[in-house]
């Protein structure tokens, strides 16, 4: 699977560290706001292309991970989904419930996978909380079994 990561900062690099360990995943493009920093991160991770244009990154990938500043999430996630590409959006999904609901509607319209990068939901300390136990099955190790979730701020819709 070809992935574009948008965001050259700390969260983008956490995703890049994880992606390099997954067989069959190729990071084809890094999109960033600071072009000097983006070039440095692209070099560090041997990413073949870097740009400031999200549209260029979308064209080069099957899916996009957005680790950009929250005020950009709504517009960028819509751009990715309307291009019929899958998207993982780091939390918070958007600045408002209205924008989050708009993204949910776009996901339903396009049918692509859209998900939140809320990995703490599956971490042992978090998954053992009573509210999370009720939300999903717990394995014998105490980790919530993975379920395909589309999370938008305060609500989660299981698919």
Please tell me the overall pLDDT. 83
- CA distance, first residue to last residue: 21 Å
The biggest beta sheet reads: 6 strands, parallel
Shape: globular
CATH topology: Rossmann fold
CATH architectural name? 3-Layer(aba) Sandwich
Q: Which spans of ≥5 residues are poorly predicted at pLDDT below 50?
A: 137-159
**Roughly how much helix do the residues carry, as a percent range?**
25-40%
The radius of gyration over CA amounts to 16 Å
Q: CATH superfamily, please? A: NAD(P)-binding Rossmann-like Domain
Regarding CATH, which class? Alpha Beta
Please trace the helix and strand order, writing H or E for each element: EHEHEHEHEHEHHEE
Overview of the structural elements:
The longest helix has 14 residues, at 97-110. The strands form two sheets. Strands 3-2-1-4-5-6 form a six-stranded parallel sheet, sandwiched between helices. It is α/β, with parallel strands linked by helices. Strand 7 and strand 8 form a beta hairpin. Helix 4 (70-82) runs parallel beside helix 5. It has one domain (2-118): NAD(P)-binding Rossmann-like Domain (Rossmann fold). The model is unreliable at 137-159 (pLDDT under 50). The protein has helices spanning 10-19, 35-44, 54-59, 70-82, 97-110, 124-127, 130-135, and strands at 2-6, 26-31, 50-51, 63-66, 86-89, 114-116, 149-152, 155-158. The protein contains seven helices and eight strands; from the N terminus they run E-H-E-H-E-H-E-H-E-H-E-H-H-E-E. The relative contact order is 0.13.
């Amino acid at each position: 699977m070809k992935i574009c990561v948008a965001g050259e900062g700390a969260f983008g690099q956490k995703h890049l560290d994880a992606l390099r360990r997954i067989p069959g995943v190729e990071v084809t493009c890094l999109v960033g706001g600071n072009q000097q920093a983006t070039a440095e991160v692209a070099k560090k991770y041997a990413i073949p292309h870097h740009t400031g244009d999200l549209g260029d990154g979308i064209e080069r990938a099957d899916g996009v991970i957005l680790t950009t500043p929250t005020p950009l999430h709504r517009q960028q996630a819509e751009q990715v989904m309307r291009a019929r590409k899958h998207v993982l959006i780091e939390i918070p999904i958007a600045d408002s419930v209205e924008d989050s609901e708009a993204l949910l509607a776009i996901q339903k319209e396009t049918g692509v996978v859209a998900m939140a990068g809320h990995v703490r939901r599956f971490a042992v300390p978090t998954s053992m909380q009573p509210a999370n136990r009720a939300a999903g099955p717990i394995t014998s190790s105490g980790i919530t079994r993975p379920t395909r979730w589309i999370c938008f701020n305060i609500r989660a819709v299981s698919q």
